[in-house]
Amino acid sequence: MLFNSIDFALFLPIMFAVYWGIAQKGLRLQNFLIVIASYFFYGWWDWRFLSLIFFSTVVDYLIGLKLGKESVPFRRKMYLWLSLFVNLGFLGFFKYYNFFLDNFVAAFSFCGLNIQASSLEVILPVGISFYTFQTLSYTIDIYKRNLEPSKDFIAFAAFVSFFPQLVAGPIERATKLLPQFYTPRKFDKNLAVDGLRQILWGFFKKVVIADSCAQTANLIFNNSGDYSGSTLVLGAILFTFQIYGDFSGYSDIAIGTARLFGFKLMRNFAFPYFSRDIAEFWRRWHISLSTWFRDYLYIPLGGSRGGTGMKVRNTFIIFLVSGFWHGANWTYIIWGLLNAIYFLPLLLTNNNRNHIEIVAKGSFLPSLRDAFAMLTTFVLTVFAWIFFRADSVGHAFSYIAGICSSSIFSFPQVHPITTLIVLFFFLIIEWIGREGNHALEKIGLKWNRPGRLCFYYVLALVVLLFSGQRQEFIYFQF
Amino acid sequence: MKRIIFQTTIFILITGVSFLLILCQADGYSDAFYLKFTTKPQTNLILGTSRAAQGLQPLIFDAILKKEAPFFNYAFTLAQSPFGAVYLNSIQKKLDTTKTKATFIVTVDPWTICSETKNPNDSTNFREVELALANTENVNVKPNLGYLYHNYGGKYHQILFPINSKMYLHEEGWLEMNLRTDTATIRQRTLKKIKDYRYNVLPKYKFSSLRLQYLIKTIQYLNKYGEVFLVRIPVSEKMMEIENELMSDFDFKIKEAILLSKDYLDLTKENSSFTYTDGNHLYKKSGAVVSEKIANWVKSK
């Protein structure tokens, strides 16, 4: 079920009413309702893959119990490996089987050995990368003895399948989200109201910004050979906002929806395009994935504790794995590699934690130095996104070659005036709201009530007016 | 909690009503089909594809034929309304079946009885089954929210600020195109259209006996409520060449349909007498002349 669909507009209020209506009847019933609703939400897209979620849930639940009881290190390790094998096995089969097969065939034929292997027509289950990582965090944390195994199967199933964040995150840690399923939820007015604000802003990002940018960005990327350098630059910039609006919009709707049901999910985006260097960007972009890789890959590999060589190796590993996580295509791997290259100088000069604070905190405008740093980081990011969006590595290079031509000094051939106008207002609102958890968290709180409601009314109406041609969320494919 | 639910409901209602009021502003500039689905059921129909939609002007038919009820252009595009179950079903919904002395102008050409599917009779994969006519349950309601939800091609703010002001759909269903008509622009558009039809459309299209059957079924259905006149609208000579390559025996193929109708007028013999916006569609002034010719021909029958 898409968040930006009539189906969800009906599903959400019904679920809300039933959920709080049965609140007095016990926590288990509420959790059970979440499981049913989540399976319904997912099954609306394709019911066949429900069995996959259910199987992962059962396997990790049982392995969790075994890990909790087992004290022999070797056996504990075997249980952990079993969990990794099952979860990553599904992910590997559905997402990477054809990629590896094609590349092996290509590598063999390069060496003069022609082998016959036929690709499988595999449908990628929506959200498999997200819930796989979430359940992995559960078994790994039990293995590390950071978490007690769940003895409540319903609560655990609700944790794995929780519908707001099931298909595109945020990827929650079991240590943070699972305990919330054990605790009775009480309706919190402030949490719910802020959730509604965050949902509204999420829809604005998705429907108004991402979908508008998508129209022009798709046109330019799909016909990149026909356009001038300046138009290609415009296409790359619009894609940069498309992917941000799309993914952070989804996260905002997910977090806001969870709040309506009394849950607190982790923040996933923190105004990443206002970052002053690439290290800050990665602390602000897809936070739940970056921190997952930090906690479960970077630190176990040794993190920054070793020498320079170790730091460089580990940095490259997490960026490459992060790129590969997004999809079975060399474009994502190069995107990860580029970000590692951007990051490396900061790491080697110990400047990777220079910008921890919010930019221009407490003032309206940034300093010239900050503005220049933000612009530079933005340009680097836009360049990397070209690889992310391109259909193939060859396409990315031809796109970049198109940019690096004399036509970059011409006037762009497409003029998405409406999109540029809404982008301008969007950036202003994001800039003003950058000190909150989401842009609307603090904006308007000091205004009088009618003024604030008018502001929300205008935003909601603009969202409706910019709807029409619904587009799926980009991150569903990951 | 009750207070929040109440306040949120009021907020959603106010926003929703405002949005509906905006949707009600949809007019001939908003969409190429919308107004065709917002009138009451119609008596005298002009049917076919975009050639008829842009070429045949109901007001001219009204002026010459002076029928009790006005003519209504219920023609769409080659993708939307070739002859088939979808178009027939939609015509059945649009037709005012309480009247029996109606006049129907059914325009035909080789494309309308062809299909681009691998098997030309594979109706489950016909393009129109996923398009507007198939998706619009109610074709006689204003505002038609079902149409706007399922089929509106752009973003809804374009209802307030239309981007394609070159196109205007009249209340009576005629789609007026106000394109540049200087010779160079017309030549460029024609070259593009002809190239597209020759290299992209022609190789894919094959005669569909199923579509022909539906042309016959459509005529049989309309015969119950009035007289059916078959018309082949003129096109540019270049387009005619392509059509002859597609189906040189078109008149022979549709002979059963001709026999079922009151009469058949083939205006492609006068192709060179008219001007076209792109080689495929009549320019509006030529469309007026062709409409007049057809109306006078109908009157003479």
TrEMBL record, chain A:
<feature type="transmembrane region" description="Helical">
    <location>
        <begin position="371"/>
        <end position="388"/>
    </location>
</feature>
<keyword id="KW-1003">Cell membrane</keyword>
<dbReference type="InterPro" id="IPR024194">
    <property type="entry name" value="Ac/AlaTfrase_AlgI/DltB"/>
</dbReference>
<dbReference type="Pfam" id="PF03062">
    <property type="entry name" value="MBOAT"/>
</dbReference>
<keyword id="KW-1133">Transmembrane helix</keyword>
<feature type="transmembrane region" description="Helical">
    <location>
        <begin position="79"/>
        <end position="98"/>
    </location>
</feature>
<feature type="transmembrane region" description="Helical">
    <location>
        <begin position="104"/>
        <end position="133"/>
    </location>
</feature>
<protein>
    <submittedName>
        <fullName>Probable poly(Beta-D-mannuronate) O-acetylase (EC)</fullName>
        <ecNumber>2.3.1.-</ecNumber>
    </submittedName>
</protein>
<keyword id="KW-0472">Membrane</keyword>
<dbReference type="InterPro" id="IPR004299">
    <property type="entry name" value="MBOAT_fam"/>
</dbReference>
<keyword id="KW-0812">Transmembrane</keyword>
<feature type="transmembrane region" description="Helical">
    <location>
        <begin position="51"/>
        <end position="67"/>
    </location>
</feature>
<feature type="transmembrane region" description="Helical">
    <location>
        <begin position="6"/>
        <end position="22"/>
    </location>
</feature>
<dbReference type="GO" id="GO:0005886">
    <property type="term" value="C:plasma membrane"/>
</dbReference>
<feature type="transmembrane region" description="Helical">
    <location>
        <begin position="414"/>
        <end position="432"/>
    </location>
</feature>
<dbReference type="InterPro" id="IPR051085">
    <property type="entry name" value="MB_O-acyltransferase"/>
</dbReference>
<feature type="transmembrane region" description="Helical">
    <location>
        <begin position="453"/>
        <end position="469"/>
    </location>
</feature>
<keyword id="KW-0808">Transferase</keyword>
<comment type="similarity">
    <text>Belongs to the membrane-bound acyltransferase family.</text>
</comment>
<dbReference type="GO" id="GO:0016746">
    <property type="term" value="F:acyltransferase activity"/>
</dbReference>
<keyword id="KW-0012">Acyltransferase</keyword>
<dbReference type="InterPro" id="IPR028362">
    <property type="entry name" value="AlgI"/>
</dbReference>
From TrEMBL, chain B:
<protein>
    <recommendedName>
        <fullName>SGNH/GDSL hydrolase family protein</fullName>
    </recommendedName>
</protein>
